[in-house]
Design a protein that fits this description.
This protein is an alpha+beta fold. 32% of the residues lie in helices and 37% in strands.
């Protein structure tokens, strides 16, 4: 954070975490995103982590886009 980044890239940050630790990770990522105004590029299989912090989600399969998901408040819109 000391270099004022605009983008934080995370590859499987919840790997090996239990449910409580994943919730703590979500809280930390939300804080970083909201308080520091940093965009997050997240590669993750744990959908509770993904949906907990994401405004937009792109689902890839072997590098090809399968689905784009926009989350608006409590609704998920598939495009």
């Amino acid at each position: 954070m000391c270099t004022d980044p605009k983008l934080l890239c995370l590859d499987e940050p919840a790997a090996g975490l239990n449910a409580n630790e994943s919730l703590e990770l979500n809280s930390l990522l939300k804080f970083i995103k909201d308080e520091h105004k940093i965009s997050i590029l997240l590669i993750e299989h744990d959908m509770s982590v993904v949906m907990g912090i994401s405004d937009k989600v792109v689902v890839l399969d072997y590098g090809k886009k399968l689905q784009k998901v926009c989350q608006m408040k409590s609704k998920v819109i598939l495009k």
